[in-house]
Amino acid sequence: MIDAVERFLRAEVWPVAIRLEHADEYPEALVEQMREMGRDHPSGLRRARNAGAQLHAADRGIAAEWMLLVGAVNSHLSMAAAVLRHGTPEQRAELLPRFARGELRGGIVLTEPDCGRNLQAIRTLARRNGEHYVVNSTKTWITNGARGNRFALLVKTGPRAEPHHRGRSLFIAENGPGFSVPPKPPKQGPTQCIQPRVLLL
């Protein structure tokens, strides 16, 4: 598998990496090639087990040489790992095989404009409405935000809980009605990963 990754990096990634960085362009063709490698390669860059996905740290090696791919791959794997570790049996059975096959592209929705990396300061509140929750919030700097379709969304479900982290939950959010993506903000110098703003209404 390591040899396959090195060949992929030399032949496909390195010749276009600088151009894509300076153009701030999502590496759509490379991500699709990685999906095909996972489907076809005998070493199993994509691992599936028991109708789910077995995520392995070696999978991340395919992007270790370039931050643009690290953002795309690691956000996807982080979303899949959240479902694998904390999802219901029904969620795992439905989502993990589709993550593993690349049919769904995952991301993690954590930060907000006013809290940065301090996730204890998030303001996004999920309010129960009958059998559903209503979320009305703005999130920002979401890797895979414009390209993903399933996200691990960090919200507050118990705003008065002590300690505070016990009042936090991860929701599975879909890119669909009520989900909008404004234009990407400008950056200084070459970007290191695609991080567009995501607005959840």
Task: Give an overview of the whole structure.
This protein is an alpha+beta fold and 201 residues long. The chain contains four helices and ten strands, in the order ααββααββββββββ. The protein has a three-stranded mixed sheet with strand order 3-7-8, with helices on one face. A three-stranded antiparallel sheet has the order 6-10-9, with no helix packed on it. A two-stranded antiparallel sheet has the order 1-2.
Question: Quick recap of the structure?
Answer:
The chain has 201 residues and is an alpha+beta fold. Helix content is 34%, strand content 19%.
Offer a few descriptive terms:
single chain; 201 residues; alpha+beta; 3-stranded mixed beta sheet; 3-stranded antiparallel beta sheet; 4 helices; 34% helix; disordered C terminus
Structural class given helices, strands, pairing? alpha+beta
H/E order of the elements? HHEEHHEEEEEEEE
Sheet with the most strands: spatial strand order: 3-7-8
CA(first)-CA(last) distance: 42 Å
Please tell me what the overall shape is. globular
Instruction: Provide the residue-averaged pLDDT.
Output: 75
Q: Say how many strands there are.
A: 10
Helix content: 25-40%
Strand % is 15-25%
How many distinct helices?
A: 4
Gyration radius, to the nearest Å? 18 Å
| Main sheet summary | 3 strands, mixed
Query: Unreliable runs, pLDDT <50, ≥5 residues?
Result: 41-58, 189-201
Give a topology summary.
Layout: H1 2-23, H2 28-40, E1 48-49, E2 52-53, H3 67-86, H4 89-101, E3 106-109, E4 126-129, E5 132-135, E6 137-139, E7 150-156, E8 168-174, E9 179-180, E10 198-200
Parallel strand pairs: 3-7
Antiparallel strand pairs: 1-2, 4-5, 6-10, 7-8, 9-10
Helix pairs in contact: 3-4
